[in-house]
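Pinned message: reference record for Solute carrier family 25 member 47
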Amino acid sequence: MLEDKGRKNVPPSSHSRSVAASFVLPLMAPRGDLREGGLSTAVGYPLDTVKVRIQTEGHYNGIWHCIQETYRTERVLGFYRGVSASVFSVSLISSVSFGTYRNFLCNICKLRYGTADAKPSGLDVSLAGGAAGAVRVVLMTPSEVAKVRMQTQRNPHSSVTSSQPLSKPKYRGSLHCLKVIAKEEGFGGLYKGCSALLCRDCSSSAIYFLTYSSLCDWLTPAGKNKPGFLVVLLSGGSAGVLAWGLATPLDVLKSRMQVDESGQHRYKGLIHCARESVRKEGLKVLFKGLGLNCIRAFPVNMVVFVTYEAVLRFTEHFTNKK
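Predicted structure (tokens):
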């Protein structure tokens, strides 16, 4: 990923390390996305639920108001609607994303410079990042649709309802949600918001990897082959904040398009969704959830890249020993 100071070769670009990392990364990806296991489930997913509700519903005055209302009506479970959609998809998606990035970068370097170990340019890194984002979209859109539908579904807790019987929720879980969407809306329903997601992930992934690579190269002292621990932390966190900050408008449009159920048809497409959202709520609507995205992005991506670099260095050490 990073070009080394004063050297032609780039250790993280080694093809053997790339392939090995693509198999090891499933162990790292869930922690990086804060969507499963321990800290991720306890902290990451509730924030994502709050973000989606703020982006798709106009009656919240802010983050704290959304948290209060969700807890008041649905208790703790309200923050975890659709969590299984992330739990079962994030490892595969993150692994494929990082593996795609590494292999695309190797192939680009082979085509341009004749060797996979050549020093990649900023354009090379951006193209590989954009390709990784495109592959992510193909795999993650159905699970994203299910997650957003579940997160915005109201299911009041029995302790806060009246003596009247509770209405049966439309979706009983993530898999049931996917089944209902496919039945009512067809295959296309599983890929609602795909255009916004494609624009979001291709651009943000290019910025993400380029920012990380550039910051590491800039902050690594001359004479050192690899970035240090603190450099990786700072570069990874900053890359996440910048990428998510710039991606927030498309993230808003993606969530709004995906929550549009069969029979509603509020939005005809990405441009129509953007135009209608801005017309009704002003330009500020495109930045709903910006604060939450940035708050989550820094610690999440510090962990992502620290673990990623550790995996790459481990595989390099293992390969060199052989």
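Pinned by admin. Summary line: The mean pLDDT is 84.
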